[in-house]
Specification:
Length: 260
């Protein structure tokens, strides 16, 4: 699935379309920081209302985004936890506290926001269920990806996952405390860490793949981005502190019900 024709605005040409073997009924993309109305450290396509940006600028960015989606996304209150909610088309304004969501009806848009943390998009091979998860190191360690896989209520081998833009392994430094959380009782997790001085370089992508594979997901695509290293393209909290948020979106096309 390329999905380029479904976005189609020159301002959005930099949006990232997943290269994954998703069925034609599934659409997905991740935004970058380009093409919006925000200024200052939030320049320019900031989608985060709680980032300190001017609320009107964020509203205009979301309005522009909404013109490229089949419905209003189900915005979450992300807390670096493990809760996964089901999309409820009648309750988008509730903004549930969760770091993952799953949808099974055409037109229901799942979204997570990020600015270094790892966004992971999911669908099943049948194209009848989609999900999005926000995986910072805390949520990743606690099981947000495994919980999202469980929310599909089907065999993990039927699930596809795509790893969106996050901070890369050459710059993401963490201390012993973070490494210890992952490697305690799991020596295989050591492969995602590389020592540099008295710190560790942490590969979020490698750890996510490891956790997904152990959950039974075999079709994993994406990775290879670095939000920290491309300041003109991506927001990065670790690089800038005060910054915007990018969004990763996935949904089942509204025509899926008629064609099934």
């Amino acid at each position: 699935m390329t999905g380029v024709s479904k976005i189609g605005d020159s301002k959005m040409n930099d949006w990232i379309i997943p290269e994954w073997p998703a069925p034609a009924t599934v659409s997905a993309f991740s935004t970058t920081r380009l093409g919006g109305f925000s200024e200052g450290p939030w320049r320019s396509f900031n989608l985060g209302l709680k980032s300190g940006d001017d609320a009107e600028a964020v509203r205009r960015n979301r309005e522009l985004l909404r013109s490229r989606l089949p419905a209003e996304p189900n915005w979450l209150q992300q807390v670096h936890g493990t809760a996964v909610v089901r999309h409820n088309a009648g309750n988008e304004a509730v903004n549930p506290e969760a770091d993952g969501q799953v949808a099974s009806e055409p037109g229901q848009v799942c979204v997570v926001l990020s600015a270094d943390c790892l966004p992971v998009l999911f669908c099943n091979r049948a194209g009848t269920r989609v999900a999005a998860a926000h995986a910072g190191w805390r949520g990743l360690a606690a099981g947000i990806l495994e919980n999202t896989v469980k929310a599909f209520n089907e065999s993990p081998v039927e699930i596809l996952a795509w790893l969106g833009p996050s901070i890369g392994p050459s710059v993401y430094e963490v201390g012993d405390d973070v490494r210890d959380v992952f490697v305690a009782g799991d020596r295989g997790a050591e492969s995602a860490f590389r020592q540099r001085g008295n710190r560790w370089l942490f590969d979020l992508y490698a750890m996510a793949r490891l956790r997904l594979e152990r959950a039974g997901v075999t079709a994993i695509s994406g990775g290879g981005f670095c939000t920290f290293s491309e300041p003109e393209r991506f927001f990065s909290f670790r690089r800038d502190g005060q910054t915007g948020r990018m969004g990763s979106f996935v949904w089942i096309d509204s025509g899926a019900a008629e064609s099934s």
